[in-house]
Amino acid sequence: MKHVYEFVADRYMEDISLQEVAALTNLTVPSFCRLFKRLTSKTFTRFLNEYRVTKALQLLNSEDCSISSVAFDSGFKSLSYFNRQFKEITGHKPSHYKKAFQHLIVN
What pTM was estimated for this model as a whole? Predict the structure, then answer.
């Protein structure tokens, strides 16, 4: 699994297919998915989205840039999908998170 984590860390901004990741582990896609879920208690897609949202949080905390640029810089190909995943994972909309973080810095 270490190779999978390194692969995601190196290529999270690109499209990552299950076929590519399964090939890293010399497993078929269904076997990889079962193993990954058993070891992490989440799907690979969920793991990848959580990784990308973590990167988005770092960008929102460190840079004054637009939500759309953060979305694309963290590997999401669609702004609406980014907004949906961000809210599902963090419980907040990206714009609300950004405003709250900026408010903390000012005060």
Answer: 0.90
Total residue length of the chain = 107
Tokens linked to 76: 């999401």
* Mean pLDDT for all residues in the chain: 93
Q: Token pair of 11, please?
A: 């290529």
Provide the Cα torsion 37, 42, 47, 53; round to 10°: 180
Task: Determine how many CB atoms are found less than 10 A away from the CB of residue 90.
Answer: 16
Q: What is the DSSP string of the chain?
A: -HHHHHHHHHHTTS---HHHHHHHTT--HHHHHHHHHHHHSS-HHHHHHHHHHHHHHHHHHH----HHHHHHHTT-S-HHHHHHHHHHHHSS-HHHHHHHHHHHHH-
CB 94 within 8 A of CB 86: yes
